[in-house]
Amino acid sequence: MKATAAIAVFLAMSMQTAHAQHAAHGQSPDAQPYAGQERRAVTTLSEADIAELKRGGGWGLAKPAELNGFPGPAHVLELADKLELTPQQRQRVEQIFKRMQQRAKSIGTRYIAAEAALDNVFRSGAVLKSGALQVRLRDAERLRAELRRAHLQAHVETTPLLTETQRKKYSELRGYSGGSHAEHTGHHGHHKH
Predict the structure, then answer these.
(1) 6: which of 25, 83, 142, 181 is 20 to 30 A away, CA to CA?
(2) Distance between the two ends of the chain, CA-based, in angstroms?
(3) Dist. CA 165–CA 148, nearest whole Å
(4) Model confidence over 106-115: pLDDT tens digits?
């Protein structure tokens, strides 16, 4: 009897959470969250997602680095004056950013195409053929992983170029309260000129 009561309480709490989440997003709990998305060029990607991928934007893929004290090159360059980057630091970070953005644009374009191909196997019914889903899904996920690696690697390459003081300042300027990787590990940055 206790297990049944616990399940009932859990279900009631889950429903309250779902209603609160819908309300927070301006949706009625009865709204159809995917309504209209069937008309997208790529069902899994909004127009904003596609634009971000085509321009080589981060798309949130580097959060494990960004939120754990590994600054990203784009934001380091935006904050260059406040971080008091040396000319050598700025030059190195610009090189990392350009290389990352070039790779991200290329991979992002291929990722969009792979997601469209995944859509197409469903739209055409080809998904019912043996292996069709596996092939399309593997292609899309491989490209998403490559894209993520390109962004994360840029954070990894940028971090050692900054001093501990610059990394701490970066975290503060970006509004992160958890401190930097250097503060957690005692790692000290080195300038590479």
Answers:
(1) 25
(2) 70
(3) 27
(4) 999 999 999 9
